[in-house]
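Dear support,

I submitted the protein below through the web form. The confirmation email said the job was done, but the results page showed an empty box. After a refresh the structure appeared. I'm attaching both so you can tell me whether what I see now is the final result or a partial one.
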Amino acid sequence: MARDFDEEMAAAGRTVHTWSNGPGFTYETHAHHYRKELCCLEGSIRFSTVEWDIELAEGDRLVIESGVEHSAVVGPAGVRCAEAHG
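What the results page shows now:
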């Protein structure tokens, strides 16, 4: 899963980095000036926008387009994700 994501992003010329947070960590509403692609490696995290809510668990992926305001809350077991920008 992580290897597939890394290989796919490398083929597209993107650098992948990983990050993690403990249970219940909250990201307040914000936006990025870049397109973000995520792959949940462990645990879970719920992302929300004004138009949708989605929970990622191990193996799930999400693309957040540039400028889209979003927030997130980490699930009860924490989370570890791989992320690429482009």
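Response: this is the final, complete result; the empty box was a page-load delay. The chain has a mean pLDDT of 95.
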